[in-house]
Structure formats: structure tokens, C-alpha cells
């Protein structure tokens, strides 16, 4: 167990960042995020359904539709970063042709362990590999993958700009970047209802189902801290991607950003 996981305060550089609505030393964030997903891993899939009323399934399907992986014989290698329990990976394999493969990369071994169990149950073991790694320093060579996806992961990363540059680095030229993330609600009136639901209901639901509401309080707060659609689009452009665009989902509750390594 590392110092952060044991809750000891690591040496700090003096730089600060946010962890939900709290301000923390940059070096602390990765350990705090790790603790959150350590706590939620076993009930992660159930809680996703409960919190979003099943909507996350539809949003993930839109992501796979937009990716549109080849269904024929062409080999195609996807990396799904912050892939957790493998939801995106399995949806991708359900859709893609027989020579498609996927690497799920996540910083949390516990989430990956749940994913491995699901891969066995689906008999997908030969086509999916699980790798432990940080989105900011991916353990893969340059130009390795045909596509990069990240769903509900990037807002947990300490330096989003570094994660975006890594996405660019590991993609082959012509490769596709897709990011699904909670975003800014764009429908007047809906933002207040959404706020009331997220802050009042979600941490309570987490407490009932898992016995601990704190990780869900962080999840809700981290959504509010994430850049809006246009700001995030500019960050993707700054990382080097071309033809960057996005689609709002459910009035902007979530957004899907796309870019290409040209
Ligand atoms: N993509 C999955 C999905 O949509 O169901 C899981 C999303 S879950 C909300 C966020 C995931 O991001 C967790 O599994 C967590 O361990 C992972 N994560 C957080 N920080 C990370 C980092 N710096 N690098 C890689 N993965 C990270």
C-alpha cells in the first residue's frame, strides 16, 4: 500500500488542485480518487444504474455508435482508459468484428478485478486485456491504438491536459479520440432539478446501497468542477487533435467529445 492509500500526507510541491469541492495538494488527489473507487468497486455497476436511472447505458451506446468500429475482418485495437469494470470494452466487442481487441487501462486494480470477472463470464478473455496504469503516463508505446475511449474517467484525473496529450501520443495517425463525461446542463430549468437530484439523492442512495455516502458526494462534486463543453473542446484542440466536435446527451447532463489524430 502506498503512502497516499494509507492516508499519510505525501511530500507536496506546493501546487493545489480540487477533489470535489475541497482544495487539496496535487500529490494527494490520486490517492483520494483511488480510495473512492476502492470503496465503490463491488457495487459500481449497480450504483451506475440506480444513479442514472439506466441512462448511462444509452449514453455508452451512443459512444459506441459514434465510434462505429469495423464489423468485418479488419484488425482494430481500442484502448479504453479509466475503463474500470469494462463496460465500454464489452459494448465495443459486442459490436465490432472478430479481429477487434481492447485494452482496458485503469489506475485501480480493484475495478479491473471486477472487470476481469465480467470478461470471463462473457467469454471475452482472449480479446480483452486489463492493464493497471495512470491516464497521465500510459504504459504503452507511441502510436499503438486505432482508437482511444474514456468514459466518466477524465474528471478524476489530476492533470487533464497531460491525459489528453497521452491520448494523442498512443493513438496511431488517423486514430479516433472519444470522451464521454458529465457536463453542463443546457436546458433552462433542468439545471436546478438536476442539481437538487444530484446533491440530495445521490449521496443518500450511495449510503443506503453501500453504507457510505462520501464517495458519492465526491462524484457529484467532481461533476460540477469539470470544464463545460466548449472549454473541454478547446483543451482537446490544445492537445493536438483535429476535427474536434461534441454532442450533448440528455440536455447536456453528459457530453460526448470527439477528435482525431490527423
Ligand atoms: N469507464 C468506466 C465506466 O464508464 O463505467 C468506469 C468509470 S469510473 C466513474 C472512473 C474510473 O476512473 C475508475 O475506475 C477509476 O479507478 C479510474 N481512474 C481515476 N483516475 C484515474 C487515472 N488517473 N488513470 C486511470 N484511471 C483512473
Structure commentary:
By secondary structure, this protein is of the alpha/beta class. It has a single domain (37-186, 215-260), classed as Rossmann fold (3-Layer(aba) Sandwich), CATH 3.40.50.150. It is 43% helix and 23% strand. It is built from nine helices and nine strands. The protein has helices at residues 26-40, 44-52, 55-67, 87-95, 109-121, 160-170, 190-210, 214-225, 229-238, and strands spanning 16-19, 22-25, 76-81, 100-106, 128-132, 145-151, 171-182, 242-249, 254-260. The strands form two sheets. A seven-stranded mixed beta sheet has the order 5-4-3-6-7-9-8, with helices on both faces. Strands 1-2 form a two-stranded antiparallel sheet. It is globular. The model is unreliable at 1-8 (pLDDT under 50). S-adenosylmethionine binds next to helix 1 and helix 4. S-adenosylmethionine binds at residues 33, 37, 81-84, 87-88, 106-108, 111, 134-136, 151-153, 156-157.
Amino acid at each position: 500500500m502506498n503512502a497516499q492509500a494509507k492516508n499519510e500526507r505525501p511530500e507536496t510541491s506546493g501546487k493545489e488542485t480540487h477533489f470535489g469541492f475541497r482544495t487539496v495538494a496535487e500529490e494527494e488527489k490520486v490517492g483520494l480518487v483511488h480510495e473512492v473507487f476502492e470503496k465503490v468497486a463491488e457495487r459500481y455497476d449497480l450504483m451506475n444504474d440506480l444513479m442514472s436511472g439506466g441512462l448511462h447505458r444509452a449514453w455508452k451506446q451512443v459512444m459506441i455508435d459514434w465510434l462505429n468500429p469495423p464489423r468485418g475482418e479488419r484488425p482494430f485495437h481500442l484502448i479504453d482508459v479509466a475503463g474500470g469494470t469494462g463496460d465500454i470494452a464489452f459494448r465495443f466487442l459486442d459490436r465490432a468484428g472478430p479481429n477487434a481487441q481492447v485494452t482496458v487501462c485503469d489506475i485501480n486494480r480493484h475495478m479491473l478485478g471486477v472487470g476481469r470477472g465480467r470478461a470471463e463470464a462473457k467469454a471475452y478473455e482472449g480479446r480483452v486485456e486489463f492493464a493497471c496504469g495512470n491516464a497521465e503516463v500510459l504504459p504503452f508505446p507511441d502510436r499503438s491504438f486505432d482508437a482511444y475511449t474514456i468514459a466518466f474517467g477524465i474528471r478524476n484525473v489530476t492533470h487533464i491536459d497531460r491525459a489528453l496529450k497521452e491520448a494523442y501520443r498512443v493513438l496511431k495517425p488517423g486514430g479516433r479520440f472519444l470522451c464521454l463525461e458529465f457536463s453542463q446542463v443546457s436546458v433552462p430549468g433542468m439545471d436546478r432539478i438536476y442539481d437538487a437530484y444530484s446533491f440530495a439523492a445521490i449521496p443518500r442512495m450511495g449510503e443506503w446501497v453501500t453504507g457510505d455516502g462520501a464517495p458519492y458526494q465526491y462524484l457529484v462534486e467532481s461533476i460540477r468542477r469539470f470544464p463545460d463543453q466548449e472549454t473541454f473542446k478547446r483543451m482537446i484542440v490544445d492537445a493536438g487533435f483535429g476535427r474536434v466536435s461534441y454532442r450533448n446527451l440528455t440536455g447536456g447532463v453528459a457530453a460526448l467529445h470527439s477528435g482525431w489524430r490527423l
